[in-house]
Amino acid sequence: ALRVLMPGVSLMANRTSIWKGPDHILYVAKNYYTEEYRRFFYKDIRALVLQRTKDGFYYTVVMFILTLISLTVVLASDSVGIQIFVGILGGVLLIALVTNMILGPTCRCFVQTPVQYEQLYGINRWRSGHKKLEDLRTLIEQEQGPLEEQSPKPREEPAPEPPSEAEAASG
Predict the structure, then answer these.
(1) pLDDT value at position 20?
(2) What average pLDDT does this structure show over 151-161?
(3) What is the 3-state secondary structure of 106-161?
(4) CB distance 97 to 64 below 8 Å
(5) pTM over 0.85
(6) What angle do CA 62, 9, 140 make, to 5 degrees?
(7) 13-34 pLDDT, tens per residue?
(8) Could you tell me the pLDDT band of residue 151, with boundaries at 50, 70 and 90?
(9) Burial class (CB in 10 A: 0-12, 13-18, 19+), 1
(10) Taking the C-alpha atoms of 18, 19, 21 and 23 in order, what is their torsion angle to the nearest 10 degrees?
(11) CB–CB of 36/29 below 8 Å?
């Protein structure tokens, strides 16, 4: 039986959802009249990657500026009709701004298998993404055994070569 991991997320005309089954994740992408299904078996998953993005910050800045502009128009306008219209628009922008701030930082989620590296568009917020990946981690560990925590290794710089005898004698 499949259970919803992430309910449908609508991106314009696209709608995605992520389902978890007993031995796999099912990623469903709907676009107008087509549906695309991708199945990722727990035994094949090599990595689940959560990458933080700045999209949420940019949305916040844009909505904040638009809210300030609408407030300025409301205060500067002499027309009651314009004040009401722009005031309602500013209120909607303020609600969107606060909601975006409450939801927290944005991210991208990727799943890697031996044959593909696929973005899961349904996971796009940092806090909820961590919770969902922890749910998946337990299912993957049941299938593959305990996973090792891996972090990127720093690049090793090659050691400088010692000066040759000729350079040491002249210097």
Answers:
(1) 85
(2) 58
(3) EEEEEEECCCCEEECCCCCEHHHHHHHHHHHHHHHHHHHCCCCCCCCCCCCCCCCC
(4) yes
(5) no
(6) 115
(7) 678 888 888 889 888 888 878 8
(8) low
(9) exposed
(10) 0
(11) yes
- Here the tokens at position 141 are 């560990």
**Which pLDDT value is given to residue 169?**
62
CB 137 within 8 A of CB 88: no
Using left for φ > 0, alpha for ψ between -120 and 50, and beta otherwise, residue 145 falls in left
Task: Give the tokens for residue 135.
Answer: 């749910």
Give first-to-last CA distance, the chain, whole Å. Answer: 76
On the question of pLDDT at 75 being above 60, the answer is: yes
Q: What is the DSSP letter of 22?
A: S
The single-letter code of the amino acid at 2 is L
Three-class DSSP category at 48: strand
Q: How many CB atoms lie within 10 A of CB 24?
A: 19
Give the span between the Cα atoms of 79 and 19, in whole angstroms. 52
Residue 93 burial (CB count, 10 A)? 20
